[in-house]
Design brief:
By secondary structure, the chain is α+β, with helices and mostly antiparallel strands. It is built from seven helices and five strands.
Length: 165
């Protein structure tokens, strides 16, 4: 809806709440992207004990091994060449397990978009795909404001995380 020349989200029932669409979208998008980039999200995409969760757990075990190896290299316990060999072997294995976990996810669109490249995936996603991601991850609530406050304030928005199963 347009409100004084600006596109807004407005309560259609009694017009008690109105917020600028661009500012709300920017805030919600950033909330979504932070959640998609969170490494712990991959472990919650599938139901507990699911193939996705198991694959993600395997990837985390390998990542922990690699991290420990790098720390040993920093401490001088192993050579830098050995650390390089470990990275060359484990990084592709970790990436492959994470990719398999995403494919096995109960929410395929979240599985495809989750991870460190979430922002790049978001940019190329269609409007329909973005809407599906928003619906899968959060419920947005625009809160009424008392008085005549005209400035946008994220305190007047709530994003409730949706549990993934």
């Amino acid at each position: 809806m347009k409100s004084k020349g600006t596109v807004t989200y407005t309560c259609g029932e009694n017009y008690c709440v109105s917020r600028r669409l661009d500012l709300v979208d920017e805030y919600v998008t950033e909330s979504i992207l932070v959640r998609l980039e969170d490494p712990s999200l991959m472990g919650t995409i599938g139901a507990s004990g699911s193939e996705s969760a198991e694959l993600y757990a395997q990837a985390r075990v390998l990542q922990a091994r690699l991290d420990a190896f790098v720390e040993d290299g920093i401490a001088g316990k192993v050579s830098s060449a050995a650390v390089g060999r470990a990275e060359k072997k484990l990084m592709p294995e970790i990436a492959a397990l994470e990719a398999q976990a995403r494919k096995a996810a109960s929410s395929p669109i979240i599985g495809e978009m989750a991870g460190p490249d979430a922002r790049e995936h978001w940019i190329v996603a269609s409007v329909e795909q973005r809407r599906e991601v928003v619906r899968a991850l959060v419920r947005v609530e625009v809160l009424p404001v008392r008085g005549s406050r005209r400035r946008f304030n994220t305190d007047h928005l709530k994003t409730h995380l949706v549990a993934l199963t």
